[in-house]
C-alpha cells in the first residue's frame, strides 16, 4: 500500500534549511517518493501550528522508512536538525 510522509516544520535558519531541501528532494525521489504538497497554503484547525507543511507519497511505508534512514537523506537531515523544529511521520494510505 502507498504511504504518505508528512512533515510539519518551523524553519529557524533559512540558509541551512535551504541546504537540507536541496539534498532531501533527490533522496526522496531515489526511494520512489514524490511531493504532493510542499509549503503550500494551509488552515490550522487544531494543535501546534508549523508554517511549513510537506507531504510526499511513497510506494510503501517500507520505502518511506528506507528513505529516511538512507545515507542521502541523513546527510540532508544534518542541515535541518539545527535549522528547524519539525515533526515527521509516515502514514499508510487506504488506496
UniProtKB/TrEMBL annotation:
InterPro entries: Dimeric_a/b-barrel, DUF1330
Matching Gene3D superfamilies: 3.30.70.100
Matches recorded under Pfam families: DUF1330 (PF07045)
Chain ranges of the DUF1330 domain: 2-93
Origin superkingdom: Bacteria
Protein's name in the database: DUF1330 domain-containing protein
Natural source organism: Aliiroseovarius salicola
Amino acid at each position: 500500500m502507498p504511504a504518505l510522509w508528512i512533515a510539519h516544520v518551523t524553519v529557524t535558519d533559512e540558509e541551512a534549511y535551504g541546504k537540507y531541501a536541496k539534498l532531501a528532494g533527490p533522496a526522496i525521489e531515489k526511494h520512489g517518493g514524490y511531493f504532493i504538497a510542499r509549503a503550500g497554503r494551509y488552515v490550522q484547525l487544531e494543535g501546534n501550528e508549523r508554517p511549513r507543511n510537506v507531504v510526499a507519497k511513497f510506494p510503501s511505508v517500507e520505502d518511506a522508512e528506507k528513505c529516511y534512514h538512507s545515507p542521502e537523506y541523513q546527510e540532508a537531515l544534518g542541515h535541518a536538525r539545527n535549522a528547524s523544529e519539525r515533526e515527521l511521520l509516515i502514514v499508510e494510505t487506504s488506496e
